[in-house]
């Protein structure tokens, strides 16, 4: 399961999670298998609840770590500051 490590960029809460996987996954969160999407979604909800701030996935991708010869997913989330003229942000 994903576990986010939070930090502040100025006054905006941001967090990143690394999730080890068995092989390369193309694309981003929307392209990955549903069980991975669901697990990351739950981790985002948990992090948001813990910090009492609305959070949204900003970016996600798969990388290769050469020393351990393994792939991992990197997921970046950020605090939602404002929504203007539209529906609430959705996870991507």
Written account of the structure:
This protein is α+β, with helices and mostly antiparallel strands. It has one domain (5-79). The protein has one helix at 34-51; strands spanning 5-9, 12-21, 55-65, 70-79. A four-stranded antiparallel β-sheet has the order 1-2-4-3. Strand 1 and strand 2 (12-21) form a beta hairpin. The mean pLDDT is 88.
Please provide a brief summary of the model.
It contains 1 helix and 4 strands, in the order E-E-H-E-E. The protein is α+β, with helices and mostly antiparallel strands and 92 residues long.
Strand order of the largest sheet: 1-2-4-3
Structural class by helix and strand composition: alpha+beta
Beta-strand content estimate: 35-45%
Question: Cα distance, first to last residue?
Answer: 18 Å
Residue windows where pLDDT falls under 50 for at least 5 positions: none
What count of helical segments does DSSP give?
Answer: 1
Helix percent reads 10-25%
Radius of gyration: 14 Å
Task: List how many beta strands DSSP finds.
Answer: 4
Q: Main beta sheet, described? A: 4 strands, antiparallel
Spell out the key features of this protein.
alpha+beta, 4 strands, 1 helix, 92 residues, globular
What's the structural blueprint in terms of helices and strands?
Blueprint: E1 5-9, E2 12-21, H1 34-51, E3 55-65, E4 70-79
Antiparallel strand pairs: 1-2, 2-4, 3-4
């Amino acid at each position: 399961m994903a576990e986010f490590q939070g930090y502040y960029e100025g006054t905006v809460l941001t967090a990143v999670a690394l999730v080890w996987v068995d092989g390369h996954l193309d694309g981003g969160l929307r392209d990955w298998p549903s069980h991975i999407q669901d697990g990351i979604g739950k981790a985002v909800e948990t992090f948001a609840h813990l910090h009492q701030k609305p959070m949204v996935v900003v970016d996600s991708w798969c990388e290769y770590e050469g020393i351990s010869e393994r792939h991992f997913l990197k997921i970046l989330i950020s605090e939602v500051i404002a929504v203007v003229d539209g529906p609430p942000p959705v996870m991507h």
